[in-house]
Amino acid sequence: MRIASLVPSLTELLAALGLGHRLVARTGFCVHPAAIVATVPKVGGTKDVNLAKLRRLRPTHVLVNIDENRLDTVQATQAWPADERPRIVVTHPNGPQDNLALIDQLAGEFGDEAGVADRARALRDEVAHELAATQPDRFALQRVLYLIWREPWMSVARDTYISRMLARVNWQTRPAVEGGDRGAARYPVVQGDEAWLADVQQVLLSSEPYAFGPQHMDAARALCPGARIRIVDGELVSWYGPRAVAGLRYLRGLAGEAG
User: Fold this and answer.
1) Which of 62, 176, 212, 247 would disulfide-bridge 205, Cβ 3.0–4.6 Å?
2) Do 90 and 62 touch, CB atoms closer than 8 A?
């Protein structure tokens, strides 16, 4: 097997399952675990894959995600000659509970590799434990605005992985919309004049994909003058796979601080 991962979370998950030595390609955003990915060639970003380089690396499997990768990337690889055409493994977790099915999916794909099935069971048990410990009815309701970008401000719809992670600690994201299975509607633009902004209790500035920092807090405060503004670890909130274990613990800690 020669695996190309075009999704940072999946690269980390492959390593956790003991498949790091099978990786032959990754994106520049695949930075964990550092010791393993340092030796794996980069093939661009999640949205701008260098297809010529990817083809030269001769992957037998290419791992993609519906939210993070472009359909034309998949279509291009499927147009390669039959003897070069990789198997495309499509993933689409939409909430923390979907990590269980995701682990099962990769165990089904790569479970013949020594140790993968055992590692998958252990990781699955860890995720299930954290899910059981993170139940919405144990936390006070908070209305939150989770920002992933600025100029324009962009938030998350309620049917995204991020929003459903936050919902595990009873933090309801605004706007109160769903974005559908795919597309831009999953990450709605906030204009700044919406009436519901006055009801937001917390504005969460994600550390990724936009690198929000202290210098952005005043602008966020102007957006929601009555809200608490805080910077949160975007990897822990948005990455699925093994990082969801630490992510659920992290959110429980934040919810405890919020009272």
Assistant:
1) 212
2) no
Pairing relationship of beta strands 61-65 and 171-173 according to DSSP bridges: unpaired
Q: How far apart are CA 30 and CA 131, in angstroms?
A: 25
pLDDT digits over 63-111, tens only?
999 999 999 999 999 999 999 999 999 999 999 999 999 999 999 999 9
Q: What sign for the dihedral angle of Cα 160, 183, 224, 243?
A: positive
Peptide bond just before 33 cis, omega within 30 deg = yes
Residue with tokens 């977790």: 93
Which residue type sits at 52? A
Q: Which domains does the chain have, with CATH numbers?
A: 1-92 (3.40.50.1980), 136-257 (3.40.50.1980)
The residue type at 46: T
171 token code pair: 């933090």
Is pTM, for the whole model, over 0.85?
A: yes
